[in-house]
């Protein structure tokens, strides 16, 4: 396929079926219409990706596995940490809106802010939020070090080491709040050198349907003042 060629788009029904099947394997219950919204998000991502570089993955079917299901894998743990309404979540280095858009669709009780320093990526995320009608999500362009709002949870996907994540984003986390970071294996060394005032609560093994790679969700908590 030529570099700038648009990918062949599977029928929307096939994308919906793949998302529903993967969500069932993950034991992640989606709200009514959630799979349809996520399929539409994949279509938007594939369309924009042919013009600006949002992800190295070009095939929409692979986007379902590597982006949608990979993000849905954390939803059960987020549901456990976000009981009740109005929990504020910041997705740092969101890129194309991952996992922020997926979290906003799967857990409508959250208020999700997607943050990235690259304005063209945030333009896409804003478009996706509007197209999907996500009243519980927003996107902000800017460097996380300069952001000053406070959140109950900060999350990120393949962002940095745990200590670097705390140093860059810890000021955004409310006292007693958490960082839930999507990471690879072997977190023990990183967890042993966290800045003062932070504790490592453990890591949850993530099994993503269709992916052989090992995934973990690292759970960090800021001390209450």
TrEMBL record:
GO-annotated biological processes: methylation
Catalytic activity field: guanosine(527) in 16S rRNA + S-adenosyl-L-methionine = N(7)-methylguanosine(527) in 16S rRNA + S-adenosyl-L-homocysteine
UniProt entry tagged with the keyword Transferase: yes
Binding of S-adenosyl-L-methionine, residues: 93, 98, 144-145, 157
Subcellular location: Cytoplasm
Task performed by this protein: Specifically methylates the N7 position of guanine in position 527 of 16S rRNA.
Family matches, as PANTHER family: S-ADENOSYL-L-METHIONINE-DEPENDENT METHYLTRANSFERASES SUPERFAMILY PROTEIN
Name of the molecule in the record: Ribosomal RNA small subunit methyltransferase G
The organism of origin for this protein: Piscinibacterium candidicorallinum
């Amino acid at each position: 396929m030529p570099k700038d060629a648009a990918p062949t788009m599977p029928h929307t029904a096939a994308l919906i079926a793949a998302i529903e099947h993967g969500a069932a394997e993950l034991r992640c219950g989606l709200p009514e219409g959630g799979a349809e919204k996520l399929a539409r998000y994949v279509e938007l991502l594939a369309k924009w990706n042919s013009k600006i570089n949002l992800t190295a993955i070009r095939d929409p079917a692979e986007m379902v596995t590597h982006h949608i299901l990979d993000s849905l894998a954390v939803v059960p743990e987020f549901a456990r940490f976000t009981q009740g309404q109005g929990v504020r979540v910041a997705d740092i280095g969101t890129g194309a809106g991952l996992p922020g858009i997926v979290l906003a669709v799967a857990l409508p009780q959250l208020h999700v802010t997607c943050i990235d320093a690259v304005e063209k990526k945030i333009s896409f995320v804003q478009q996706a939020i509007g197209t999907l009608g996500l009243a519980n999500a927003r996107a902000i362009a800017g460097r996380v070090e300069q952001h000053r709002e406070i959140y109950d949870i900060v999350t990120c996907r393949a962002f940095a080491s745990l200590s670097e994540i705390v140093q860059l984003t810890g000021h955004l986390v409310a006292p007693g709040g958490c960082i839930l970071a999507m990471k690879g294996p072997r977190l023990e060394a990183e967890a042993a050198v966290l800045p003062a005032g932070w504790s490592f609560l453990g890591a949850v093994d993530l099994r993503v349907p269709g992916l052989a790679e090992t995934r973990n969700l690292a759970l960090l908590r800021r001390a209450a003042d």
